[in-house]
Amino acid sequence: MSKVLLTATMNKIPRLTLVGAGPGDPELITLKGMRTLQEADIVLYDALANEELLKHARPDVPRIYVGKRGGGKYKSQEEINELIVHCARHYGHVVRLKGGDPYIFGRGHEEQTYAESYDIAVSIVPGISSVYSVPALQSIPLTRRGISESFWVITGTTRHGSLSKDVALAAQSTATVVILMGMRQLSKIQAVFENYGQFDTPVAIIQNGSLPEEKIGIATVSTMTEMVIEERLGAPAIIVIGEVVREHKVPAWLKKAVQYA
Asked: Which residues form the catalytic set?
């Protein structure tokens, strides 16, 4: 347990607030999220939550990094759950700062139900998800009249490390497909879409969306793995597959950062 926990106060009511930090840009947090950080007694934050946001917390408030980035060192979900309860009992108001939205592949509901099982009150502050905001910043609409009537949001990697079966279902539709946590599965994703004849369907892969170091690669299904290698794109990134990618326009402020296949 972190040494920071030794300074705990015992006279506060334990509670938890799950706060969505947004896609990365620290200005893309909600007013409510920012105000909640100001009210925190302790903050537990993830790798995908911009550390600039921690400045909204009071200077004396402990901050504990709990990781949660694929491939790196991080606490297990069970350890995080236990830490939430421990901190709530010793500090009072725990703010759990999570990248994007806590309820979209953020395991926020798992943390909520665990805390509630210990009679800890839980509140939710939704966040702006990278699912739709990162493509929007690249002028890629997930829906567009006459082009796409709906969109899928899929995790590329399941809890067992395998490719989600929903990828094959999505590849058979005309909807826009957004895949998170899919860079390690990219060749498999390409093979699935090719299996359903989507060789020429356009693809955008956006790394570090909304941040100054943002990069984008534009390709087709049949060339996307080659493009990623050539342009040296990696995680964290989102994959957008669908005809709406043709609507992409380079924002003036990003022209120097944009990469093309």
From this structure: 46, 68, 181
